[in-house]
UniProtKB/TrEMBL annotation:
Gene responsible for this protein: ACS3
Keywords, comma-separated and alphabetical: Ethylene biosynthesis, Fruit ripening, Lyase, Pyridoxal phosphate, S-adenosyl-L-methionine
Protein's name in the database: 1-aminocyclopropane-1-carboxylate synthase
Native organism taxonomy: Eukaryota, Viridiplantae, Streptophyta, Embryophyta, Tracheophyta
Family: Belongs to the class-I pyridoxal-phosphate-dependent aminotransferase family.
CDD domains associated with the record: AAT_like (cd00609)
GO MF term set: 1-aminocyclopropane-1-carboxylate synthase activity
Family matches, as InterPro entries: Aminotransferase_I/II_large (IPR004839), Ethylene_sulfur-biosynth (IPR050478), NHTrfase_class1_PyrdxlP-BS (IPR004838), PyrdxlP-dep_Trfase (IPR015424), PyrdxlP-dep_Trfase_major (IPR015421), PyrdxlP-dep_Trfase_small (IPR015422)
Pathway: Alkene biosynthesis; ethylene biosynthesis via S-adenosyl-L-methionine; ethylene from S-adenosyl-L-methionine: step 1/2
UniProt cofactor(s): pyridoxal 5'-phosphate
Top EC category: lyase
SUPFAM superfamilies per UniProt: PLP-dependent transferases (SSF53383)
Domain Aminotransferase class I/classII large: 40-422
Organism of provenance: Salvia divinorum (Maria pastora)
Amino acid sequence: MTLSKKATCNSHGQDSSYFLGWEEYEKNPYDQLHNPNGIIQMGLAENQLSFDLLESWLAENPDAASFKRDGQSIFRELALFQDYHGLPAFKNAMVKFMSEIRGNKVKFNPNKLVLTAGATSANETLIFCLAEPGEAVLLPTPYYPGFDRDLKWRTGVEIVPIHCTSSNGYRITGPALEEAYQTAQKRNLKVKGVLVTNPSNPLGITLTRNELNLLVDFIDAKGIHLISDEIYSGTVFDSPSFVSIMEVLVNRNYMNTDVWDRVHIVYSLSKDLGLPGFRVGAIYSNDDMVVAAATKMSSFGLVSSQTQYLLSAMLSDDKFAPNYVVENQKRLKSRHAMLVRGLKSIGISCLKSNAGLFCWVDMRHLLAANTFEAEIDLWKKIVYEVGLNISPGSSCHCDEPGWFRVCFANMSEDTLNQAVQRMKAFLEAGRSVEAGQNQSKSSRRKSFTKWVFRLSFQDRDRER
Ligand SMILES: Cc1ncc(COP(=O)(O)O)c(C=O)c1O
């Protein structure tokens, strides 16, 4: 049987090491009691740190999850067909929550909100609305590996990278934006917009006001769109605080301009509330035509009425929602500090970050060579020998080999400590090989990296 071109086209990106690492984890998942030598999943940006808060709210509000309102069953109401505009109560609760996360500095209008099955669907829907197949969106590197699937696969749209590097802390610059634009033009690709994630996945940093202003100026000058994926907006645990693109537009009085209509926000409850399984996302756009088209398209990925009902009760609870955000950020901050400290104690540093569910970890000094092949060799060692599934920078389209994304919020403290201990043992084993060879200090690093490299080759033999 032959499948359609769309179904078989490889722009989905499932062969990326990002997804391959998950497959390896699934074959041999770590469990403290039942599989203590299994692979620890550190490649999944899930937030499990505040489930107890959600669970105690559910225990105190049993009606919300049991199809009831004021003790009376509303099962039939929820079970019947809903139109694609979503439950008004839920949209009101979502915009209120989005404002709260932004310190109530921006107000959102529920009529400009389109509900989607997660940010995955929101991003794809927006691209479908804004670009034709063969047109391009510019994305700063490194970026979330799922974007190849979400932005390109079914839409036929191309991603052109905006090259950002560690030399300036991965900040977006005017020349980098212009260079990406020119590259697209040289490839005969019409640029329809820029997509940024703020805070960034995989970097865990928020965009500065300077970068946001630069982006607004750029899309203004080029007459293109800006999509701001703010899925991690509630995870900002340290200063500088989160600045939404909407706040920048309002401060600069862009409300009655065409730029205002060309800026769109993507949001979801997958990260801030830790509910990726509920599939709740949204597009927020100032452009009525985008809202209308995206609403029609949302038929392919609606949020179930049962979920909308439950979450409208939870998010409109004035006591619960703000407390949750503050407490969750506190927990993320402490967990982030634990990983940074643990890695530092074994000589590994992280990009300074203030948000997200992961650290961007610098292992350039452990590479046998400054190449992406060497990065994948080291990654294989870390997955198969150390038993940690982390994501190599190359899977995020990073321009420099040796960086890895390491998640910290999808496991217990014990598991995180265990992961650091494993990494420590791995590095010490490398050093003792080196000591055995009794080499001079100056060649230490060289011999260690050679050791990593040699083991990687042994892996390859074993795989064959
Ligand atoms: C930047 C970014 N956008 C979108 C998504 C997809 O999120 P959802 O689970 O809401 O579809 C993710 C998930 O990791 C993400 O990191």
